[in-house]
Design goal:
2 domains, Rossmann fold, mainly alpha
Length: about 375
């Protein structure tokens, strides 16, 4: 908008404001505009890069990214580069509905969903599976928010990857959906979750109720004894929540019910849904899992895979992260975790037995 247009709006739409006020406002606006232009035309500072990342892609840059973007010619070029990035494009796709063809046109297309259970090695597997699909056919939504996309938008994609629950996948308007996942010993998964949070940059210490802050402030036993952590569906029998309940649980602070009776009633549904997976793996048997998953999809098994999002490796390439001590399962920790993994242990044993059966069928030693 030019300054004459702004002045006209001020005169017509702000009651009681005369020409003098408008002149003051437009003069001030002109000065601000000139200052902004100068700021954008100079070489970028660390503050310019951080501000650009926060405003455009909604996060802080890594130290390496700060250095890279400071090498650009101007602060304006920092913003243009971010606006042209795939990360911004993915955000835009999530937030703005695009015109799509009718989903029935693609209803029969083969579709793969990677249901990512956190801290099971899923980042590595789902990234490798994404290579099987065209980039524009990979759904950018990676959290349990599929219901926020239109049916036409959901119908466009062939590959979905994220921290979904099983029931939410019914929103995908496809008839041929193959669901993949990875499981890990439930106690080991919880310990890995705590170590991952503890290794990450320290969040706002004043917000003591959130898991990331609590992991920094509390040792592992105190962390899993905390009432808020024990009530969270992310930590309290997560496998059962992901496979045995509806998607509504993930939006609230607590599962729909913490009663033993309700959880027991959901076990058969969870086992049925695990059995219906096209393929799944076990973190503890990673190489066999990759073979099983890719063979089940009729895809070539990768010769090698780079492991991603490994907690113990992050401090080597990102100075914001720190090394975290290993955890020995003490009697106290075992007792603390017992209720949190009671149902997940049963589901994990069920998954291990089914995994053995599937490996035998595919001739995987």
């Amino acid at each position: 908008m030019n300054l004459d247009r702004l002045k006209d709006i001020v005169l017509r739409h702000i009651p009681g404001q005369g020409p003098r006020s408008a002149r003051v406002l437009t003069t001030s606006t002109a000065a601000i505009g000139e200052g902004a232009a100068r700021a954008l035309s100079r070489r970028p500072t660390p503050e310019d890069v951080i501000s650009g990342f926060r405003c455009i892609v909604g996060r802080d840059p890594t130290p390496a990214q700060i250095g890279d973007f400071m090498g650009l010619r101007t602060a304006s070029e920092v913003n243009r580069t971010l606006l042209g990035s795939q990360e911004f494009k993915d955000w835009f796709v999530r937030e703005h509905v695009e015109a799509r063809e009718h989903p029935d046109h693609a209803r029969a297309r083969p579709t793969v969903v990677y249901l990512h259970l956190p801290k099971t090695g899923g980042t590595t597997v789902r990234a490798e599976l994404a290579k099987l699909f065209a980039a524009d056919r990979v759904c950018p939504v990676q959290w349990n928010r599929l219901h926020r996309l239109s049916v036409a938008e959901l119908g466009h994609y062939d590959y979905y990857q994220g921290h979904f629950d099983y029931a939410s996948l019914r929103f995908i308007p496809r008839d041929n959906i193959r669901i993949i996942s990875m499981f890990r010993d439930p106690s080991a998964r919880l310990i890995s979750n705590w170590r991952s949070l503890r290794a990450a940059p320290m969040p706002d210490p004043s917000d003591k109720g959130t898991p990331p802050t609590a992991a920094h402030l509390l040792n592992i036993e105190d962390f899993f004894e905390a009432e808020g952590i024990r009530a969270s569906p992310y930590f309290h029998n997560y496998y059962l929540m992901a496979f045995g309940f509806s998607p509504s649980w993930i939006d609230g602070p607590n599962p729909p019910s913490l009663s033993r009776a309700d959880r027991a009633a959901a076990m058969e549904l969870a086992k049925h849904n695990i059995r219906s997976l096209a393929a799944f793996g076990l973190t503890e048997r990673f190489d066999q899992s990759v073979q099983l998953i890719f063979r089940a999809l009729g895809a070539q098994v990768p010769e090698s895979i780079e492991k991603l999002n490994v907690t113990d490796h992050k401090a080597n390439y990102d100075p914001r992260y720190r090394k975290v001590e290993s955890v020995a399962i003490s009697p106290r920790l075992q007792e603390v975790l017992a209720e949190l993994v009671e149902f997940d242990n049963e589901l994990y044993r069920f998954a291990v037995e089914d995994f053995e059966r599937r490996c035998a069928l595919h001739g995987i030693a």
